[in-house]
Structures are given as C-alpha cells and as structure tokens.
Design brief:
Aspartate Aminotransferase, domain 1, Aspartate Aminotransferase, domain 2, five-stranded antiparallel beta sheet, globular, binds pyridoxal-5'-phosphate, pyridoxal phosphate, EC 2.6.1.62, Aminotrans_3, Adenosylmethionine-8-amino-7-oxononanoate aminotransferase, Aminotrans_3_PPA_site
Length: about 450
C-alpha cells in the first residue's frame, strides 16, 4: 500500500503521459499496473481488471503468455540487438519471410521500424520517392496524398499530414504538408439515407478528384474497413475494393494502414482479406508482436522495391532507417506471435467471440442513450448520445464517469470522445467477452437511469 502511494507520487513527479491532459490526470491517484495474466491486468494494490482494450489494441494471446515469454528468453541467449544497416540477423529474416507469406500476395518486401506512426511515415516517403525514382520529370507533381476525413495514422509529422482529426491535428497545421481529404464513408454521422447512396456519392467524389488531379497524387492512404482512433467508423462492404479499382485506373498507389486492424482484429488476419484487396504498400504495427514489444513494418510490392534499385550508392536509395530497425528480440516474439495465431486457431476463435460481442452490444440499442453500435471482429464502438434523434453526444463528463465506474467494477475500457470502445484481447474467452459487456451494461444502467 505504502509503495503504491509512493509510486503514484513519483509517477506524477516524473512522467508526462501520452495523449493525456496532465492537469486532469494529476487530480486523482493513477492506476499503476504491476502485472498481467491472460485477459487480466493487475494494479499495485492487487486489483484485477479485464483488459477490454487489449492494452491499446495490441494484445493477442493474453498477458504473460508462456510461449511468447519463452521466445524472448531463447533469443536472449543468442543476442539482443545488432544493426540491419549493412548486415542482417536471423529472426528478422525469418519474420520477413513469414510476413510475406501471410499478407496479401501483392506484398513481397518488408521494411522494419518500431511504431505504427513510423510505418506510415515510411510508406509516405516510399510512395513519394517511388514516382521520382521511376521518372522525375513526368511525375514531378505527384506529391500529395488522398486521405479520408477522420483518419488517424499516427503522430509523427508525415502521419499527422495524412491524418484527418481536427482536434489532434489543427495545432500543427503550419508544420504539416497539404493533402486532399475526402468525406469518410461512415453512415451514422452522415446526412445520407443509406449506405449505398453514401458509398456511390463518395466514390464519385474520389473519381472526380482522380480524373482532374491524379498527376498530383502519389497515393491513397486508408485505414481499411474501420477508421479506428476517431471512433470506430465502419466502411460499407465493397468500399475498399472500389478504392483499389480507382487507384489502379488512375495510377495512384494504394497504401493500406493496417496498424490497428491487422492481425485478426476485424475477424480476418488482415482487413484487406475481407475484400481480396492487394495494396501496393501495407503498414503493420500494434498486434504484430502480440502486444509484447514495439515493432512495425511497411510492406511493399516488388514493383515499388525495384524502383529503388541501382548500382550506385546515392542513386534511388531509400535513405530512411532507425537504430533498432529489425531488432532480434522484437522479431523473435513477433514470429512466435504469428505461429500462435496458427497453432491456437485464433482467427476462427475471433469469429465466434465477435458474434457474441456484437449480439450482446446490440441488445443495448434499446437504452435511451445508446445511439449506435458498430464494428467488426473484436473492434466495436458504442456511441453514447443525449438524444437518439439529434445524435447529440452525451456529455463527456458522463462518458468519463462510465469509463471510470467500469474500472471500479474491474473492466478496463477507453472512450474516444462519446464512443466507448470494446477492443479486447484477441484470445479473450466467450465467458470473458460476456462479462465485459455485462459490467458495462450494469454501469450504463446505474449511471444513466431510464
Ligand atoms: C491506423 C493507425 N495507424 C497508425 C497508428 C500509430 O501507431 P503508433 O501509436 O504505434 O505510432 C495508429 C495508432 O493508433 C493507428 O490506429
């Protein structure tokens, strides 16, 4: 107990937390996580929480997983780190081969980094340089990216430039480069009557931009199927495939950011698999290591890779890389993570638990403050509103109280504004999925009485 208080004081003294208004954070004693086991995490007081956001959408097989622990320990006996600059290493080679074998057929080369933001930054730079490498004069203008409103691709300046969340990004507007932003195909917040009408209209807008400006556009950066960090907006079926078709027609690279949706999150190994989409570039991160260590990867097609080949060092080379690129410990655990997906038949498991999560959450639509329930796989959002007709968001203080009460009842979840997110550990059992929704439902009913 004494130690917990002491740690809490030191936390407030020394740590500046990410995406956090520290003035508010400091108003109450922070939860300090000490250990994890399976679907649960435990704080320094011994309180147990069901991990309903998979420790920020990363955990695949549960905390303190024996096989993942073993993979790291085994690698430790060999070496922890050497550089990929000018030499290679065993786990990074094995992992690259594995990643190429499980991702869409179009992708054959792997460029490692260590955060999702970096993987997007790399994708943008590769796409930009690709056009210059193949014909500097002809493609001199291909410097912009098509993006979706409400997109989130990370926090480095390139990733912010292709993002579309005003509240996060407007402060940096003088530092970022200009892009072409398109309406997001998400029905709930739109004025469209139905999905088909919305999809036709947005695809028409995209085509008309491409028709006039494809000579200025290097690539289309998209979160396939679900725009996560903005509030889990689900795109209609067929939208991604149509975007792919338009990109091919107008000679624009398709860059799929699967940092959040990759590795089983939407019920297929990759969101692109739902519509058999073959991206030119794909960004991976988060669950790539099963939630153990920071790793990201940008995969490209051979066409892109070959455009960077030359016999001269400074000609066409991709001058980008990070100190820990392809680190052995990280790659070892990522490789074991993928093997566990196969060994534990995690994708079929997710399909079953997804149906339970969906049904249980959709039952809540009868509550007067539940405006929308949307998602795929194990990535769902419950939008809380003051009024179902006007869709006016529920007061943020009430939303935060619900999240905080859920914690008190043993469930860790997070809200994105007025959307409560359910993005649990991928291996969570059916029983635990039901328990997660039950805790939320009880808190919801107690907080917002009918
Ligand atoms: C779609 C998407 N891309 C990129 C990122 C950035 O990843 P990271 O936070 O690891 O830099 C995120 C993070 O939430 C994301 O959801």
């Amino acid at each position: 107990m004494k130690n917990s208080k002491n740690l809490a004081e030191k936390d407030l003294s020394y740590i500046w937390h990410p995406f956090t208004q520290m003035g508010i954070y400091a108003q109450q004693e922070p939860i300090i996580i000490e250990k994890g086991k399976g679907s649960y995490i435990f704080d320094t007081y011994g309180n147990r929480y069901l991990d309903g956001y998979a420790s920020l959408w990363v955990n695949a097989h549960g905390h303190n997983n024996k096989q993942l622990n073993k993979a790291i320990k085994k690698q430790l006996k060999y070496i922890s780190h050497s550089t990929l600059l000018g030499s290679s290493n065993v786990p990074s080679i094995k992992l690259a081969e594995k990643l190429v074998s499980i991702t869409p057929d179009s992708l054959k080369k792997v460029f490692y980094s260590d955060t999702g933001s970096a993987s997007v930054e790399i994708a943008i730079k590769i796409a930009y340089q690709y056009w210059k490498n193949i014909d500097k004069e002809k493609y001199a203008q291909k410097n912009k990216f098509l993006t979706l409103h409400n997109g989130y691709h990370g926090d480095t300046l390139g990733a912010v430039s292709v993002g579309g969340i005003d509240s996060f990004h407007k402060i940096f507007k003088d530092l970022i480069f200009e892009n072409i932003q398109i309406e997001s195909p998400s029905l709930y917040k739109s004025d469209y009557d139905n999905e088909q009408e919305m999809m036709d209209s947005i695809l028409q807008q995209i085509e008309s931009i491409l028709l006039q400006r494809s000579n200025e556009i290097a690539g289309f950066v998209i979160e396939p199927l679900i725009q996560g960090a903005t509030g889990l907006f689900v795109h209609p079926h067929g939208f991604l495939k149509s975007v792919e078709t338009l990109c091919r027609k107008y000679n624009v690279l398709l860059i799929c950011d699967e940092v959040a949706v990759g590795f089983g999150r939407t019920g297929e190994m990759f969101a692109c698999n739902h519509e058999n989409v073959q991206p030119d570039i794909m960004c991976l991160g988060k669950a790539i290591t099963g939630g153990y260590l920071p790793l990201a990867a940008t995969l490209t097609s051979p066409k892109i890779y070959e455009a960077f080949l030359s016999n001269q060092h400074a000609d066409k080379t991709f001058f980008h890389g990070h100190t820990y690129t392809g680190n052995q410990l990280v790659c070892s655990v990522a490789l074991e993570n993928i093997k566990l997906f196969e060994r534990n038949k995690l994708i079929p498991h997710i399909k079953k638990t997804s149906a339970i999560l969906k049904n249980n959450l959709e039952r809540l639509l009868t509550h007067k403050n539940v405006g929308d329930v949307r998602g795929r796989g194990l990535m769902f959002g419950v939008e809380l509103v003051k009024d179902k007709v006007t869709k006016q968001p529920l007061d943020i203080k009430e939303v935060e109280k619900i999240v905080s009460d859920c914690k008190n009842e043993g469930l860790m979840i997070r809200n994105l504004e007025n959307v409560i997110t359910f993005v649990p550990i991928l291996s969570m059992s059916k029983k635990e999925i039901r328990k997660m929704v039950r805790i939320f439902e009880n808190v919801l009913i107690n907080t917002l009485t009918e």
